[in-house]
Amino acid sequence: MNNLFANVSRRAFLAGAASFSTMLLSACDHGGGQTATGGGSAGASDTFRSVDDIKKAGTVNIGYFSDKAPFGYVDKDGKPAGYDVVFGNRLAKDLGVEANYISTDGLNRVPFLQSNKADIMLANFTVTDERAEKVDFSLPYMKIKLGIVSPESAVIKSVDELKGKKLIVSKGTTAETYFEKNYPEVTMVKFDSYADAYNALLDGRGDAFSTDNTEVLAWVKSNPGFVVGVDDLGNADTIAAAVHKGNTSLLEFINNEITGPLAEENFFHKDYEETLKPVFGDDVDPETIVVEGGKV
């Protein structure tokens, strides 16, 4: 698993996904696309696919990161894999449809939902008030803080040590927002994808990289010469699934899954054992990451 993670983290995956036509549903068609209530962002579609629409189509479109192992990545067989993907596969199974995974990056998570390119977003999506104005979040299934990874030859052990240095971040992430708000004096080098950001760190185009602590703790396991000098930065945040604003039927389905059968099965702990523990080993307590039943 560690070799797989190293291969994933060291190369940039293309974020392009198999293109498909957006389903245009007539208002007079029984069971057709619903219309979102309230205001929306410019360019956002007013319609979305309800649970009934998805079941009729036989496919649910799920946005995920293809370059963020072990949470979302492409395995050696070219198939989506990771913690988020195991969750997505279960949602698709219980919907009675096939899962169609669409690779995204941090900036496109909200637009992909608003344009209905994705029905569900499972791309390590941190819940924030700003994002909640544009999409609807489910109950959480994971919790995280921020971390900072840097070369062991020049370890960054606090934000103060970033003075005069370059911090790598991925665009559209909570790390970018956190440093813009709280440490505007820190010089950030921004990249569209996680793979590009990690490659920049490996190439020395920045002094450190900040993203979710769970991510950097996993990455250093397979990248000798780098350490996580900061693993508890900022407030504790939650990770949740997201849907188009106003898609009540799909949101209720996901929440009912989280509080119902998945909670009864201790699903996310099993997901952790399958996808994250092989990377984290005994260095990380699953209780610091896993959320069951939507209760933090």
UniProtKB/TrEMBL annotation:
The UniProt entry's GO CC annotations, sorted and at most eight, read:
extracellular region; outer membrane-bounded periplasmic space
Residue spans making up a coiled coil are none
Looking at the record, the residues that make up the Solute-binding protein family 3/N-terminal domain are 59-279
Q: Does the keyword Protein biosynthesis apply?
A: no
Keyword set, alphabetical order: Signal, Transport
Q: Which GO terms describe its biological process?
A: amino acid transport
Q: Where is the signal peptide?
A: 1-27
Q: Does the keyword Signal apply?
A: yes
Pfam families xref list: SBP_bac_3
The entry assigns this protein to a family as follows: Belongs to the bacterial solute-binding protein 3 family.
Query: What is this protein called in UniProt?
Result: Tat pathway signal sequence domain protein
